[in-house]
Fold this protein.
Amino acid sequence: MTSIESDTEVATRLEFEESQRSEGWRLLRAALRMQRRNLLLGALVGILWASFKVAVPQMTKYAINDGIEKNGPLLQWALIIGGLGVLTGVLSGMRRYIAFRESRWAEMKFRERLFAHVLNLNIGYHDKAQTGQLMSRASSDLMQIQGFIVMIPITLSNVIQIIAVTTILFITDPILAIVALIPLPFVNFAARRFSHRIHPASIAVQAEQAQLANVVEESVSGVRVVKGFGAEQVQFEKLEKEADDILRESMKAARIRSSFMPAIDVLPALGLVAVLGVGGHRVLNGDLSIGDLVAFNVYLTLLIWPLRNIGMIVALGQRAAAALVRINEVMTTKSEIVEVAQPKQLPMSSSETLGAVKFDKVVFGYNLDFPVLRNFNVEINGGESIAIVGATGSGKSTIARLLLRFYDTQSGHVFIDGIDVRKLKLSDLRQQIGLVFEDTVLFNDSVRNNISFAKPNSNIQEIERAAKLSGAHDFILQLPHGYDTVIGERGFSLSGGQRQRIAIARAIVANPRVLVLDDATSAVDPSKEGEIRDAMKTVMNGRTTIVIAHRPGTIALADRVILLDDGKVAAIGTHDDLVVSNARYREVLANMSTVNAAEKAAN
Amino acid sequence: MWAQGGVTDEDKLSRAQARTVIGRVFKMAAPFRKTMYTAFICVCVTTVCALAGPLLVRRGIDLGIRGKNPTSLNISVVVYLAVALVAYIFGRAQFLYLNRTGESFLRVLRLAVFRQMQRQSMAFYDRNKAGVLVARMTADIESMAELVQFGLLQFLAAGMLVVFALVLLAALSWQLTIVALLVMPILIAASVKFQRDSNKAYLAVRERVGANLSALQEGITTVRVIQAYAQEEETIRKFTKSNTDLFKSHENSVRVSTWYFALIEFGGVFASALIIGIGGWLVHRGDVTLGTVVAFTLLLSSLFDPVQQLSQLYNTVQSAGAALSKLFQILDAKPEVDEHPGAIALPTAGELVVHEIDFTYFGSDKPALQHVSISVGVGEKLALVGPTGAGKSTLAKLMARLYDPQVGSVTYGGIDLTMATMTSLRERIVVVPQEGFLFNGTIRDNLRIARSTATDEEIDAAIGAIGATEHFATLPDGLETEVRERGSRLSAGERQLVALARAALVDPAVLVLDEATSNLDPGTEAEVEHALERLMAGRTVIVVAHRLSTVQRADHIAVIADAHVAEYGTHAELIAKGGRYSALAAAWQKSQVTH
């Protein structure tokens, strides 16, 4: 942290984190409640396993004392030990299975809830949120939690095992027990310290790896530029620096490992030495049987793993808590777009054509201090087609987003067929508006499913009709698997124009009463554009269409044109009228494409 | 980790391949051979120490306790302490040396693979998907990092421990060794089966993790479309399915390991039962000592644990082998476009002549260009037009030697481009792609991509040359503005301006332009146009044109259709001819008239 915080700030922050953490734990407890029975079963199995495991050295001791030293019945002891082997084996398998299955189950449920929650959050949230951040909530953060849940039953049985073993050791020989146990708490301590210190070190390594990945990624994607200018050496030097950084950070991590791991391995051996030395003399003095001595040795080895694990689980728990805090932050974020308790119904039929849109004194800005629309008023009749023209940043695309209720206005109202969009169920509203986005987003799915996205159960006739109208049918048939071709799969790629035509088909299938085309044909081959425009006339017939025009060409689709300037409607009328009467309109058009203007003059 | 190492059948290395891979690894590791050997010695010492413990316990019991000899007992204790100390010291050293060896190796590997990737021609980048190449350099090498950090040590130590423990056990008592070995075949068979099943299970998990992550990412990045079409429920339903699939594969992988670990645990206890039962009987007969039996029970874990570790590590080692083998393939790929040994510098000016070339892309059976000849004089502007995929971009790329033609030649000032030095080639001919590609760093850094030695003044001059000084001055940090990932902080137009300024910095004689198909934001579009005009002035220009205005400004137009030059001439000539070009020009005009 480079920022300097005052003590009170630190206190507030810690308090906040603390409240978040307890909130996070509550989330975890609530999530685990569903699995309570299985987790308890896991704990029970773990306890049983621990008690049998502890019994093995005890039996070994009897076998040595009675069986070997006193020439007693050997077979009986061997059989008992073998039987314990069967029990511990079965129980350890069960413990493992339950622990892992339950933790994965919890992880799955968490991810499901997280995904559903994020998907329903308002677009304003998504504008600010980073995909990578949300991804790591649902992947690496959940992994931390899964790693912790796995340890719950295991830790329980470990605790039981430690208690049982220590008790037995003290009953057998308290003095020897003390001597033998002295080094062992250090195992736990070292394991805890180790987990604490290695975590930031491995995060640092990962960060360096990510930086190297960036250099590789840009060198590969920008290979034309690199090759075109012979910048190989420049990129190589960048990479060399990152590779050196990785080496340095990895060695830091290695040093931490080297200072703890061997210690964790060697410390228990000190207990064994103590048992041999002190215990050996006690046997010589007749205070201890030789079987007890051997059992002591075996018991000590039984303590090593549980102590290490408990040391680690403290750190694991802290990491899981931090992950929970982050996840909780997302889960407690509420969507800013709220549906009313008793939504109204959109009229299904009317004497006039449906799809009337009205913006009434709308004020809106993505940032409260910078309104994009200020007092924006417009009435669009049902079935009318209208083009919105304006300079870059004038708020053309914002109009579509407000209509869809991606955002709510700061003041003023948006109506569709006379009903305030805020009074409608979101899904009812959105089903009636087909938006073709400025940047075409298609899914990694078949062409068919992409087109029928808005109506997943539409039949092939509907899909093909939409594709024909958007001028996509012909090229789709030429794709390797026609309508079943999966978009984004290796082997072929669609051009920008082709993607846009599929997106238009998707909007057509939705059969909305309002169609919004946001620069929808910008990447379409100019020779094809006229063709699509003709087809679009059919689609637009009887349907309200809002064309957000980034280029003069698309204006041709509309009956009326709105000139948007300074967040308000500056002029409204037909293209031909505006060209004649409005200087600002001519200016905006000219700016849209100086090239086109020049051509027109030449013709 | 979400998914552990797993190897598909096709990735599995044959014995011969494995030998080659290992051989090459050692060759690459040669510079730090000493570190490697030191590490190996350290591993040997710690292994011996690990085994010495139980032996000393045996000695203590037999000679000290049962032999009623306190001094002997004390000697055992002191030696044991010394051994523990040695184990600790060498344990630390082995970590450091092994990690240093491994990480240094990975560093060398990263540098070598990257350098080799950079030496490759464009054709290589066409053949290999960008994502795959990035994965080779990142995920594949990182997967080995884990092996380097723990695996290698465990693998070595486990292997050594099995061998040493067996030797030791046999020396202690051949009878008890036979008893211990009775359990081994079951253990080994179980381990082999586990290794196979778990490999399959891990692969399934890995695949589903990938699918799940894609579904997750797609959901988040397409949330606007999903909400716009009110398809949240349907999307969540689909995601839940992929999520449940992932859970099932996890569950399956746990099931595979469950019985194995249960068996291992049982095997360990069962073996000690055997040792105590049979060992006790042998003690009664006086064949072995009690200390030996105790030492055996302690040493058993030294025999069983490594076998188990080896079987778990086997997958990781195999997948590392597979990754290495793929990386070596990249190292072995010979660059197609490379500098000729006797290369000479191109003259400062000259005619660019394409003579009878044929060119086919790798993996394609259709030639992209056939018998194409064309020439561009000094300062001449040539526009290439034609339908998508007809070969106009390919021709432009060949004229800048991004590829070499299979037949025919491209010459500049009479010198074949394949005979030119790379440096002079890149100083004379510069390609400006459709979209301005930016790298992480400042705008200045991005210009230096074109010439790393350029001074600040030269960069300012280049920006001035395309008339963009004012524009960039309006940015908060001017030319020091960090463009962020892929230049996301700049508009498309601004990125294009940077790309043009790069070309201006090189000041080439020939410009190869690929005109953008889609429009830029109207604001900067005019500036880009203006910059282009200034840049083109006085240079030879080959432009892949998508707009009538661009074509009209060219001296000559070549219509490329069906892999050859279909028409060639001036705008007026071709319009008069009434062929393909005049049809195309008409279509363009129609689309740009607004009523």
User: Anything to note?
Assistant: Chain B has three domains: 13-172+320-334, 174-287, 352-592. Chain B has a mean pLDDT of 85.
